[in-house]
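Q: Convert this sequence to structure tokens.
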Amino acid sequence: MGSDNTPYRGPKIGLCLPYEGPATAQDIVDVAQAAESAGLDSVWVGDHIAFPVEFASQNPTMADGKYPYPTDNPRLEALTTLAFVAGATSSIRLAVNACVLPQRNPVVVGKAVATLDYLSGGRVIFGVTLGWLREEFDALGADYGRRRQLLEDGIEILRALWEQDQPSYDGETHSFLPLNMKPKPVQSPVPILVGGHSRPALRRAAAVGDGWLAARMTPDDLREHVGFLREERKRSPRADQPFTVATNCPAAVGSGPAGVLDLADSDATQSMLAALGEAGADVVNMVVVSYDPAETRDAAHALGQHSHSAQ
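A:
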């Protein structure tokens, strides 16, 4: 972004893979390789195991409480998809936004993420969140009512598994004696970014996270949340550790729905990236709302002109 004489200084740029919709295995590889060739920082996937056919839960990231895409879309599982992509790329980072950790056994998750980081050469960004879809929790036999404690304990367990030689844990929701679990991740630490827009979620991210995940925020809203986060982070025992703010941005290549950034418009893209960066974003994950593989490849190429001097 910017001319040859004025290099882009804004946030790093990620791209959401078309993990929803009709994408083939080759489509996923093609988009990831296009993003890597364009010099983008990261590729991202979301996380839902299964949408119940009928549900009453409200999505807190949307003003109308709805999930923004058809709930009967095909959806690829997050860590399996990133493992597939890892073998077809060499440098681009592999990000989850965000694993609903309270739905899963954290020891199993810890093993899977450690393996992905080891095999990819240390490229994982691991986002976690509470989850909002009670009916999905019910289908998985997970405890929706205790999800806050499960998330906080789960983060502690992940760090123990990844950073301790023979990890053990004795907490409110989980307990296990010392384990042999190797290989460890290449990264130390693997960055854990914590999602959620509420004040308790922001406090959690500031207190125990390596970063925060925002969803579909305007620059003004993002700036307000980041200001609160920075004050909370000062009181965290991890205050001296790096902290990353990542947000997603709905996008299209050409005209799209209202409120969706047109990546074919270089000036508009430049302005949005600059505004989100000034509001506190370190990484912006562009989400092509059609989830069309060809359009997402085009998005990678369009973003490439903004990416090289940002990395």
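DSSP finds nine helices and eleven strands in the chain.
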